[in-house]
Amino acid sequence: MVKITDVARHAGVSPSTVSYALSGKRPISEETRQRVEASIRELGYRPHAGARALASSRSNVLALVVPLRTGIHVPVVMQFAVSVVTTARRHDHDVLLLTQEEGEEGLRRVADTALVDALILMDVQLDDPRLPLLRSLDRPSVMIGFPAEADGLTCIDLDFKAAGELCVEHLAQLGHRVVALVGSPPEVYVRQTAFAQRVVQGFTAATDRNGLASTVHPCEAAPAAARRVAEQLLREQPALTGVVVHNEAVLEPLIDAFEQLGLRVPGDLSVTAICPDELAESLRVPVTSIALPSAEVGERAVELLMRKLAGDDVPEATLLPPRLTRRASTAPRDTP
Amino acid sequence: MVKITDVARHAGVSPSTVSYALSGKRPISEETRQRVEASIRELGYRPHAGARALASSRSNVLALVVPLRTGIHVPVVMQFAVSVVTTARRHDHDVLLLTQEEGEEGLRRVADTALVDALILMDVQLDDPRLPLLRSLDRPSVMIGFPAEADGLTCIDLDFKAAGELCVEHLAQLGHRVVALVGSPPEVYVRQTAFAQRVVQGFTAATDRNGLASTVHPCEAAPAAARRVAEQLLREQPALTGVVVHNEAVLEPLIDAFEQLGLRVPGDLSVTAICPDELAESLRVPVTSIALPSAEVGERAVELLMRKLAGDDVPEATLLPPRLTRRASTAPRDTP
DNA sequence: CTGAAAGCGCTAACAG
DNA sequence: CTGTTAGCGCTTTCAG
Q1: Closest CA relative to residue A290, chosen from A243, A245, A258
Q2: Do A254 and A185 share a structural domain?
Q3: Which of B94, B116, B169, B205 has a CB 3.0–4.6 Å from the CB of B63, allowing a cystine?
Q4: Residues contacting residue A247 through CB under 8 Å, at least 6 positions apart
Q5: Do the domain assignments include residue B326?
Q6: For an interface test with A, which of B86, B115, B133, B279 has the most A Cβ atoms less than 10 Å from its Cβ?
């Protein structure tokens, strides 16, 4: 194995000069830098990661904790992970993969052994048990999602309130005057993340602002429940022409139910959703939707961590703006 | 930060004794072990990963290289990754996540800097450009899939030949006498992995053995192609009652085509597939299938690496036995 | 702008 | 069964 002293000897400089030439932490004359770089290339020198970590107390590794819970859309997790790895590499860092299963002990382990410099946690719950631990660790972290009480921590996620608003604005622009939100199952509004409530807030704010008639309907994640909600909507809001769906599991059954009840999408009813693009694209009638921007969340999460590692202050909360993709399921209201 | 000398002093022993108590690499009297463990717990000692790696030349980290190519089923990759992490943890190792995108340079980097002790590569191609590199690295690796020339390397995958056989045996046992294989697109038989040919070999061997009439049909990954193949099958093999599908993309369209042509599944035609369970389960008629056992592949891959790291010899090729899950798409042949 | 040298915290001979 | 000690390869003061 070729080491820094070998390079130093070969280049006719001291080991520290090689180190500084590599890190750029102090000025090196152009000429010596050239010599050092040539020697490095010629000898095929690679600094030993462990030695580096020991001497510098920086491993240049980030931990990424991925969820295992069912009900989480796998491609979204994967997209996010890839984006974290790619961005981390741009900043000369690697990524250690941990599963939620490892729990708090796993986080403590990789942090306390200095195996990683910082942590990224996905799928953060409202009352996440890892919050106190994160606060106590001596390394920075970023959470995807917003817990109930995030003081002193750093969070990032899609701006779900704005997403709810954007769906409504889209429908309003198309001329729709009576709209409904079909939301997550009731239990989601209690535990889990706060995003469900946020969507409702945004939806309501926007319908009020635009003077639209509106209702909100939590919905179980079962086709039968979708059917019931569809029937109820038609019964209670016969003038309904726009629907926002924030519930991946019932999006397809809901549209099926509407069509079976004699409503064409988008002819009679425009439908927009907050769901992964994959799902929105794959339906019989591709659905106008707002996706969780996983790649962007991953990238931004890493960049927040890099700033924290550099000692900079970062905002506690980062909300990413929603982007709506128009597809076949929304159309201007048929104005008679 | 509490270090090994702190623990040693607290327990009234030498640092090496603490080290050996932790590693078990030499006998320690029950009594001192107790004292050391108590001190460790009391002081909350965590060995520094970098220092360990430097002194022992073992990082206890494995690299996992995941593919990004489209056409790879994401949940399978994820399942595999989770299984690798879980198994690695059982062996006191962590997992560094790399993307295919990093290429050969990435592999060289993590190996040469001693950031990882060993590597796992997914999605290995027949003529994978990384093969020579893997042979030249000073750390062991395991590949998921079989390249054309794997001498000196270690591979593991589903036994696709046995999978082809098992599908046929299943149909034969149900009384089917005339069967067909609908395979991958023609180009897959050329490049990519060898598994497509293996399936054909197994299929043919088993039909011969069982005295079944059979044909093989490569098929493009498009619904129209599926339709054409379905029509061709009915025209050329009117007595056909069993089909094996090894082509995720056309499984659903193919079944649709058969039904549109007046054949009930499984009433007139039994269908079995080699595809992810998720897909098989999600179809209108759940399909009897053989899945890629990703969790098992991941687990076994890690175990192979552990044996190699321990200096043991391991087989170059490991073929995992297929397991068939019966679903609604296969039934005994209607014997008039 | 560059060198010398003191660690970083741990493991593994070597010695008893 | 346990202690002493010499590194592992790098970074970073300190000194010039």
Answers
A1: A245
A2: yes
A3: B116
A4: A182, A183, A184, A185, A219, A221
A5: no
A6: B115
Asked if residue A243 and residue A203 are part of one domain, the reply reads: yes
How far is the CA of A148 from the CAs of A127, A131, A134, A152, B222, in angstroms?
6, 10, 15, 12, 47
Same domain, B167 and B267: yes
Q: Quick one: which residue's CA is nearest to C3's C1'?
A: A14
Instruction: Give the pTM.
Output: 0.93
Name, in order, each residue with C-beta under 8 angstroms of B306's C-beta and a sequence gap of 6 or more: B91, B93
Residue B329 falls within a domain, yes or no? no
What six digits make up the tokens of A183?
């939301």
Which residue in A37, A117, A87, A124 sits closest to A311, CA to CA?
Answer: A117
How many residues are listed for chain A in this entry? Answer: 336
What does the DSSP 8-state code read for residue A322? P
**CA–CA–CA angle B14, B18, B22 (5° rounding):** 165
Regarding whether A269 and A229 lie in a shared domain, the answer is: yes
CA of A28 to C1' of C2 (A): 9
Given pLDDT bands bounded at 50, 70 and 90, which one contains residue B193? low
Strands (E), B229-316: 242-245, 270-274, 288-290
| Tokens at A223, concatenated | 């086709």
Chains A–B, number of C-beta pairs less than 8 Å apart: 98
- Taking the Cβ of residue A192 and every Cβ of chain B, the question of whether any pair is shorter than 8 Å is answered with no
* Residue type for position A183: G
Q: Say yes or no: A184 and A253 in one domain.
A: yes
Please tell me whether residues B266 and B186 are part of one structural domain: yes
Question: Do both B152 and B228 map to the same domain?
Answer: no
Query: For residue B74, which residues of chain A lie inside 8 Å, CB to CB?
Result: 74-75, 78
Co-location of B152 and B197 in the same domain: no
The answer to the question of residue A56 being in a domain is no
pLDDT band for A335, please (50, 70, 90 cuts): low
Does any domain span residue B141? yes
Cβ of A29 near strand D (under 7 Å)? The reply is no
Report the domain count for chain B. 3
Cα A13 from chain centroid?
47
- What CATH number is given to the structural domain containing A169? 3.40.50.2300
Give the separation between CA B248 and CA B222, rounded to whole angstroms.
10
Closest-CA distance, A51 to chain B, in angstroms, reads: 5
B16 sits within 7 Å of strand D by its CB: yes
- Strand C positions within 7 A of protein Cβ atoms: 1-5, 7-13
Average pLDDT, chain A: 93
The side-by-side arrangement of strands in the sheet containing A270-274 is A213-217, A178-182, A242-245, A270-274, A288-290, A324-325
Kindly state the average pLDDT of the residues A204-211.
96
Least Cα distance to A101 among B266, B281, B87, B36 occurs for B87
Edge-to-edge strands of the sheet including A155-158? A317-320, A155-158, A141-144, A118-121, A61-66, A94-99, B94-99, B61-66, B118-121, B141-144, B155-158, B317-320
Mean pLDDT over B26-33 rounds to 92
Note down the domain range covering A66.
Answer: 61-158+293-320
Q: What average pLDDT does this structure show over B297-305?
A: 98
Distance A64 CA to D9 C1' (A): 28
Give the nearest nucleotide to A8, CA to C1'. Answer: C3
